[in-house]
């Protein structure tokens, strides 16, 4: 049985076509010629064609709706917003209703991991038909739209200097960000699983460091929670792998690879990181 997210964009698309057709007929000058009437209805025919595509192929149709809406919004004057803004909204709704097959992984194992905060890391065996697990990345979240949206936001806001507004945007995206956290420019936070990343109070993330909550290989998918505990410092251009906990007040030297838990009050560095001393 189809759910609400399946029917909502389809019903709205039909109503949208009816509205645009009515609008075209209202502005039609009453000419008896058949050709002028057809010309006025061209937008309705285009919307009908895109809706037919989106009805069976949500991802393709939704993408066309969004791109078309933005193109109209940028190229044409403001009066065209009556077409462009609803088109973008419809595209988002179609993409949100798109579900990808998760038959290539053990879905129960994945759901148990996401629901149980005591499980720090899992490794899923890839059972799909593609040549490597990364080719089926949309299915790991079932719906890729959230990741695409977070990726776009992340690319924009990661250029900002550290500030509370930037932290608030990351919280909206799903990351667990504490108070007085400093996120330097060009920091990369994994957009595929934001809920797996926790940055506690007073943490500093240096310029260009990366927190990766997932890893794809040829036949494996590794997911892990990353917890950066209070008043820790991750040096610039360092990488934290999935399933790692960095202890309180730990300091990570720049350009380090963190592939295992770091003790509290320790100073580590290197590839892979090794303990250099204590704070």
Give your account of this protein's structure.
It contains 9 helices and 17 strands. The protein folds into 2 domains: 4-97, no CATH class; 113-278, Hexapeptide repeat proteins (UDP N-Acetylglucosamine Acyltransferase, domain 1). The chain has a 6-stranded mixed β-sheet, with no helix packed on it. The chain has a 4-stranded parallel β-sheet with strand order 2-5-10-13, covered by helices on one side. Strands 4-7-12-15 form a 4-stranded parallel β-sheet, with no helix packed on it. Strand 16 and strand 17 form a beta hairpin. The N and C termini lie far apart (59 Å). 42% of the residues lie in helices and 17% in strands. The chain has 279 residues and is an alpha/beta fold. The longest helix has 24 residues, at 4-27. The model has no long low-confidence stretch (mean pLDDT 85).
Query: What would the CATH topology of the largest domain be?
Result: UDP N-Acetylglucosamine Acyltransferase, domain 1
Helix percentage: 40-55%
Name the CATH class of the largest domain.
Mainly Beta
Oligomer designation: single chain
The number of helical runs is 9
When the domains are counted, the total is: 2
The main pleated sheet reads as: 6 strands, mixed
- What percent of residues are in strands? 15-25%
Strand order of the largest sheet: 3-6-11-14-16-17
The CATH H-level homologous superfamily of the largest domain: Hexapeptide repeat proteins
Report the uncertain regions. none
Determine the N-to-C terminus distance.
Answer: 59 Å
Along the chain, the helix and strand elements come as HHHHHHEHHHEEEEEEEEEEEEEEEE
**What is the arithmetic mean of pLDDT?**
85
Number of strands: 17
C-alpha Rg (nearest Å): 24 Å
